[in-house]
Design goal:
Layout: H1 24-31, H2 36-48, E1 50-56, E2 61-62, E3 65-66, H3 68-78, H4 85-88, E4 91-96, E5 102-107, E6 111-116, H5 117-123, E7 140-143, E8 150-154, E9 157-164, E10 170-175, E11 185-188, E12 192-193, E13 199-200, E14 204-209, E15 232-234, E16 238-239, E17 249-254, E18 258-263, E19 272-275, E20 282-287, E21 293-298, E22 302-307, E23 312-313, E24 323-325, E25 329-332, H6 333-337, H7 341-346, E26 354-360, E27 363-371, E28 376-380, E29 385-390, E30 412-413, E31 419-423, E32 429-434, E33 459-462, E34 467-472, E35 479-483, E36 488-493, H8 501-507
Parallel strand pairs: 19-24
Antiparallel strand pairs: 1-36, 2-3, 4-5, 5-6, 6-7, 8-9, 9-10, 10-11, 12-13, 14-17, 15-25, 16-23, 17-18, 18-19, 20-21, 21-22, 22-25, 26-27, 27-28, 28-29, 30-31, 31-32, 32-33, 34-35, 35-36
Length: 508
C-alpha cells in the first residue's frame, strides 16, 4: 500500500499555534467523569435552582373516616384546640429508604405513612397544589393512636421500618410487606425504679439500625487523638466491645440520658445501655458507616461519643444481664463555639439544646448539628473542632413569630457536595447550607469576604408552610419537607415546558 502514498513536502514555515480556551464541558464528555472542582463550581447553580413543586396535605382517611392527623389538622384550622391539636398533628420525622424508592413519615398525632416516591413525584405535576391525592397509591397508612417522634428504615432489610415515641418506652417495627396495622415486633425498655420504688418509663426520642457495612468502599474513619482541652471530658474505666456488623442490633436514645442497645435474637429487652452520667434527654443519635462510633446529643448542648471498638465502661455497673457504659468523651458545644473569635465578638454564646446531629454521607468525618435557636454547624470529628457555623438572625430582629419549641427540627444532608438542608426556625422555607470541608465554604469559620463567589453561596427556598423535618433523596437530590401542618412538600428543580425557539431567544 505504500506505493500509493503520495509524500508531502515539508513546510518551511512554522506557524504559531493559536491558543484556545479549554472546553470544560467537552472535557467532561471525553473523560467520562466530572472533576471535583467543576462539580464544586456548579454547586451554587444547584442551590439556586430548587423550588417547591408539590404540596401534599395530610387529608387522609382510615376505615372510611378521617385519620387522627386529618382530624387534628381540621380542628386546628377551625380554631378548636382539642387536647393540644394545634401543636401535635404535624410531621415529626421522615426518611427515605436506602435506594430512595419509599418515603416513610410519622406525625405527632400517631400516623405512620409510607409513600412510593415516584408516585408522589408524578402527582406533583398537578397544577393545583390543593388537589385530592389518590389515597389508593399509599403503600402504608397506619394509625398507632400514640405520638410518634422518629422513624428509621432498616438498611439490612428494606421492608422494615421502626418508630419511637417520646411518650413511650417501646420501639415498634413494621414490615411493609404485610398488610397489617400491627407491628411485627415490639422492643421494650425496662422501667427505672425511683427511690420511692415506683416504676418510671422513659420515652424514646430516636432510633438507629446497624448496617452490614462495606469496607471496600468505606472512607478512612477517625482514630481519636483527643486534644488536651477543657471542652472535652473523658470517662476512665474498663474496655468493652460489641460486634460491629451485627445487623440484629438496634439503638435508641431515651429522655433520661442514655442509649439502649437491643439484640433482637435475645428478646424484647435491651442488653446494653450506654449512659451519659446525666439525666438530660438525648434528642438524636447517629452511627458512623462502620457502626464503630455512636454519637448522641441533646439538652444542654453536649455531644457524647461511644467507641464500640473499645469504648470505656465501669465494671461496677455491670450485671449478668445488662451492662452500663459511660461515654468515651463528651463535647461541650458552647465552649467549642467560644473559640471562634468572630462569633464570640458578635453573640452571647450560652448552652443550647441540640435538636439533631447527622453525619455527612459524602464526608465520613463531618458531623452536622442543629440547635434550638436555629443555629447549625459542622463538627470535624477528627480534630474535634467546629469548622462551620450558620447563625440566622433571631426571630425578634425582623418581627417574626417565635418558633414552636415543641418541635424538634430534623435537618438532612444531600447525598453529595456536603449540602446541609435545614428548616428555617423563623420563616417558611429551608436553608441550603454549604458545609463543604474547606475554607471556600461561606459557612467556614475562616472564610473571608474577599473569597466570596457567586457560585459558592448558601441558598434559601421559600415554602408554603413551616418546616419541621427534611429528608433528601439518596440518588437524585430531591428534598421532601414535613411541615408543622402535617403536609409533605416536594422540593426540586422547577419544571419548565420547552417552548422551542422562544427559549433560545430568551437564553441569548
Amino acid at each position: 500500500m505504500e506505493k500509493y502514498v503520495v509524500p508531502s513536502e515539508a513546510s518551511q514555515a512554522n506557524p504559531n499555534s493559536i491558543p484556545r480556551p479549554r472546553w470544560r464541558r467537552a472535557a467532561i464528555e471525553i473523560n467520562g467523569r466530572i472533576e471535583p472542582k467543576y462539580r464544586r463550581d456548579l454547586c451554587g447553580l444547584l442551590l439556586q435552582s430548587y423550588a417547591e413543586i408539590g404540596v401534599f396535605p395530610h387529608l387522609y382517611h382510615a376505615d372510611g373516616v378521617p385519620c387522627p392527623t386529618h382530624r387534628d389538622r381540621v380542628m386546628s384550622f377551625a380554631g378548636f384546640d382539642v387536647e393540644g391539636s394545634s401543636t401535635r398533628h404535624g410531621v415529626s420525622a421522615l426518611e427515605f429508604d436506602k435506594q430512595g424508592i419509599y418515603l416513610a413519615s410519622v406525625t405527632r398525632s400517631g400516623c405512620l405513612m409510607v409513600h412510593d416516591f415516584e408516585s408522589l413525584y408524578c402527582q406533583s405535576n398537578v397544577i393545583s397544589p390543593w388537589f385530592n391525592e389518590d389515597e389508593t397509591k399509599h403503600l402504608l397508612h397506619i394509625s398507632t393512636r400514640r405520638q410518634l417522634d422518629s422513624v428509621r428504615w432498616n438498611p439490612s432489610n428494606q421492608d422494615e421500618v421502626a418508630c419511637t415515641s417520646m411518650k413511650s418506652s417501646e420501639i415498634f417495627i413494621y414490615d411493609i410487606g404485610y398488610v397489617s396495622s400491627k407491628p411485627v415486633e415490639v422492643l421494650r425498655k425496662k422501667p427505672s425504679l425511683t427511690i420511692h420504688g415506683a416504676d418510671v418509663y422513659n420515652g424514646l426520642s430516636d432510633v438507629a439500625f446497624t448496617s452490614s457495612g462495606d469496607s471496600s468502599c468505606t472512607p478512612d474513619l477517625p482514630v481519636y487523638d483527643f486534644p488536651n482541652d477543657i471542652s472535652v471530658t473523658f470517662c476512665s474505666a474498663d474496655w468493652f466491645y460489641l460486634p460491629l456488623h451485627d445487623v440484629n442490633r438496634i439503638f435508641a436514645s431515651d429522655t433520661y440520658g442514655s442509649i439502649n442497645i437491643w439484640d433482637r435474637r435475645r428478646g424484647p429487652f435491651p442488653s446494653v445501655e450506654l449512659t451519659t452520667n446525666s439525666h438530660n434527654a438525648l434528642n438524636s443519635i447517629e452511627l458512623n458507616i462502620e457502626n464503630q462510633i455512636v454519637y448522641g446529643a441533646g439538652n444542654q448542648g453536649i455531644i457524647y461519643m461511644w467507641d464500640l471498638r473499645g469504648g470505656r465502661s465501669s465494671a461496677a455497673f455491670q450485671s449478668h444481664k445488662e451492662a452500663y457504659h459511660p461515654p468515651l468523651a463528651s463535647l461541650k458545644l458552647s465552649m467549642m463555639l467560644e473559640k471562634i473569635e468572630s462569633l464570640k465578638a458578635q453573640s452571647d454564646i450560652v448552652p443550647k439544646d441540640i435538636h439533631s446531629i447527622r453525619l455527612d454521607p459524602s464526608c465520613a468525618y463531618s458531623l452536622a448539628f442543629h440547635l434550638e435557636d436555629g443555629w447549625s454547624g459542622r463538627l470535624d470529628v477528627r480534630s474535634l473542632e467546629v469548622t462551620h457555623i450558620h447563625c440566622p438572625p433571631p426571630a425578634w430582629l425582623d418581627g417574626s413569630l417565635t418558633s414552636n419549641l415543641s418541635y424538634l427540627r430534623k435537618p438532612s444532608w444531600l447525598s453529595t457536595n456536603s449540602i446541609y438542608v435545614v428548616g428555617s426556625s423563623t420563616h417558611k422555607g429551608i436553608h441550603l447550607l454549604d458545609f463543604y470541608p474547606d475554607t471556600s465554604s461561606p459557612c467556614h469559620v475562616d472564610f473571608s469576604e474577599d473569597m466570596l463567589m457567586s457560585s459558592r453561596q448558601n441558598g434559601f427556598v421559600p415554602l408554603s408552610a413551616d418546616v419541621a423535618a427534611c429528608a433528601a433523596h439518596p440518588c437524585n437530590g430531591f428534598v421532601v419537607a414535613g411541615t408543622k401542618q402535617a403536609s409533605l412538600l416536594v422540593i426540586s428543580q422547577r419544571k419548565k415546558v420547552w417552548q422551542g425557539e422562544e427559549d433560545l431567544k430568551d437564553s441569548d
